[in-house]
Amino acid sequence: MITGIDIGSTITKAVCIEFTGDRGRVVKSIKTRAADAVTSATGAFGKMLVENDIKIKDIKKIMITGAGASKIKNDLFGIPTEKVDEILAIGIGGMFLSGRENIIITNIGTGTAIIEAKKDGIAHLGGSGVGGGTILGLAKKLLMTSNFNSIMELAGRGNLNQVDLLLEDIMDKDISFLNREATASNFGKMLDSARDEDIALGIINLVFQVIGMLSVFAAKSKNIGMVTVTGNGSKNPIGRTILKAITDIYSVGFEYPAEAEYTTAIGAGLSWIGEKG
């Protein structure tokens, strides 16, 4: 088995992959939090072994990637340990999970990366510092909480009309292909009557509208009609609703593969095939 570990800035994810020839199959996946990269990587690996009754002798190699990978200087637990470029890992993992070899991937973590992945190459198209970290940072200041579940609970009861300026607030008819319910300015209204619930929804709407529009521009520039969404942000139900509204306007779809949050760790593990070859 090969273990892939994605050492993120806040969460570390690990997967175990079994190979039959050049075909990989994800058999186990876990995630954990820790204060530093070494603790995150060793903790995730140890948790993987203990919780799934995997023997250390069964692990042939550990492939690490992510923001904290550079902090790992030596082999982990005496097992050969190799670093994998994060963009490469996202591209490989995204193609594996989507089952396609010509895709646009939007990986939503603390920030957001947008990648073109094809069989003959993987390219980083760009991205944004807007992502999950933006939600937590703004909520900490505006809502006095950085607990993600609390933010989501508040947002579920929010009303965007209290915080966002809509086209209907400034125009009496549709403009171009946008109807009057479209956003003219995120947080551009911000009524005194806005509640924490409204602000929470406004924050999530801001983040996912930015991510969605960047994804649309990337997909259209490559004549691709579907964006594969990966990373922790792929699980956000309110975010998915916001992206669906963008699909309705721009005719670019968003898909969410199973285990999308583990894409980078999966890609790191699968990159062993390329290294071996």
Put the structure in a nutshell:
The chain has 277 residues and is α/β, with parallel strands linked by helices.
Which labels suit this protein?
277 residues; five-stranded mixed sheet; Nucleotidyltransferase, domain 5; alpha/beta
Would you kindly provide a written description of the structure presented here, covering whatever features stand out?
The chain is built from eight helices and twelve strands. The relative contact order is 0.17. It is globular, with a radius of gyration of 20 Å. Helices cover 38% and strands 25% of the residues. The mean pLDDT is 93. Strand 11, helix 7 and strand 12 form a beta-alpha-beta unit. The chain folds into two domains: 113 residues, 2-Layer Sandwich (Nucleotidyltransferase, domain 5), CATH 3.30.420.40; 155 residues, Nucleotidyltransferase, domain 5 (2-Layer Sandwich), CATH 3.30.420.40. A five-stranded mixed beta sheet has the order 3-2-1-4-5, sandwiched between helices. Strands 8-7-6-11-12 form a five-stranded mixed beta sheet. A two-stranded antiparallel sheet has the order 9-10. The two termini are 17 Å apart. Helix 2 packs across helix 8. The chain has 277 residues and is of the alpha/beta class.
CATH topology of the largest domain: Nucleotidyltransferase, domain 5
State the share of residues found in helices, binned by percent.
25-40%
Can you name the CATH architecture of the largest domain? 2-Layer Sandwich
Instruction: From the alpha carbons, calculate the radius of gyration and give it in angstroms.
Output: 20 Å
Low-confidence stretches are none
In the sheet with the most strands, the strands line up as: 3-2-1-4-5
Mean pLDDT score, rounded?
Answer: 93
Listing every helix as H and every strand as E from the N terminus to the C terminus, the arrangement reads: EEEHEEHEEEHHEHEHEHEH
The total count of strands amounts to 12
- How many domains? The number is 2
Q: What distance lies between the first and last C-alpha atoms, to the nearest angstrom?
A: 17 Å
CATH class of the largest domain: Alpha Beta
Q: Write out the CATH superfamily name of the largest domain.
A: ATPase, nucleotide binding domain
Instruction: Note the main sheet.
Output: 5 strands, mixed
Globally, the shape reads globular
